[in-house]
Q: What sequence folds into this?
């Protein structure tokens, strides 16, 4: 048998092996993604917005990336560029807070479609431009990490400005449909699966940005909009933008801790540090803002606080 014929016979097996190596992390991402919609629905816009953004799908991505990245440098570049995507996600979420009041004359359905189209189009254009520009400069790993840190700082500034006046912490009265849960899980599975496949192709920066493509946020916002009305996603946008900084923190920490301490220890340490030093302070900050503005906005009810 000639070499070319042998390669053709071997290709399906290689592809199958690649898919099988990616599938567990992708499915894990889909499973944990479903929980965020339940959290927003159960605890309301503010508390749910923070709790639903603790590092979840990014953990699945980091686990898969650890096995798929060609080199340690590629692994670090991919994770270090994640905060750039998270910064874009923060801006994307704030479109849901800023745009609907200005286009309310369109009607509910047209307003929802317009918000989705405009927000996603802007995200794709800016993400593509930033990725191409950064890659063209051929930066070192250290410079990519610095870019990620700067993106996280800008995201923090943007999120604090967006949560200066916290919306009422409306808790939903209607359940999100099972179809929405399924779509969200499938969306997260696809996003992480594609990101891992891209990382295998030697494009770590693209992989890092794609891993946080806002399809998950979109399903949260659309699901809560359709089930609860526009007030819940509007109230969750700012807190989610603040809470999602824990994902940036996890990515930056995991980029160094996982190669240094191993997958289990490194990922666990990065997760607890991110939740303890980003998610928890964000939650406490939003509670204090609500108490300060309790004369204007609805305060947290006891049943909205996680047990």
A:
């Amino acid at each position: 048998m000639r070499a070319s014929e042998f390669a053709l016979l071997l290709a399906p097996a290689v592809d199958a092996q690649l898919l099988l190596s990616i599938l567990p992390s992708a499915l894990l991402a889909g499973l944990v993604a479903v929980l965020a919609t339940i959290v927003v629905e159960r605890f309301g816009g503010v508390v749910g917005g923070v709790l639903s953004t603790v590092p979840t799908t990014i953990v699945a991505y980091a686990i898969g990336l650890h096995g798929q990245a060609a080199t340690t440098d590629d692994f670090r570049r991919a994770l270090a560029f994640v905060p750039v995507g998270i910064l874009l996600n923060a801006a994307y979420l704030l479109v849901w807070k800023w745009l609907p009041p200005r286009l309310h004359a369109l009607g509910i359905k047209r307003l929802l479609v317009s918000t989705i189209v405009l927000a996603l189009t802007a995200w794709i254009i800016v993400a593509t431009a930033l990725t191409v520009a950064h890659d063209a400069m051929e930066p070192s790993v250290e410079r990519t990490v610095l870019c990620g840190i700067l993106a996280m700082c800008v995201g923090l500034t943007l999120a604090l400005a967006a949560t200066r006046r916290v919306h009422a912490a409306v808790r939903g009265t209607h359940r999100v449909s099972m179809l929405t849960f399924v779509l969200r899980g499938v969306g997260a599975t696809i996003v992480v699966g594609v990101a891992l496949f891209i990382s295998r192709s030697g494009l770590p920066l693209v992989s890092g940005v794609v891993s946080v493509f806002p399809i998950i946020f979109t399903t949260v916002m659309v699901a809560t909009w359709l089930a609860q009305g526009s007030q819940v996603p509007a109230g969750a946008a700012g807190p989610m933008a603040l809470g999602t900084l824990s994902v940036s923190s996890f990515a930056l920490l995991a980029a160094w801790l996982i190669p240094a301490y191993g997958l289990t220890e490194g990922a666990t340490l990065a997760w607890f540090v991110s939740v303890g030093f980003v998610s928890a302070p964000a939650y406490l900050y939003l509670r204090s803002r609500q108490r300060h503005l309790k004369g204007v906005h609805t305060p947290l009810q006891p049943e909205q606080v996680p047990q």
User: Anything to note?
Assistant: The chain is about 80% helix and 0% strand. The chain has one domain: 24-298.
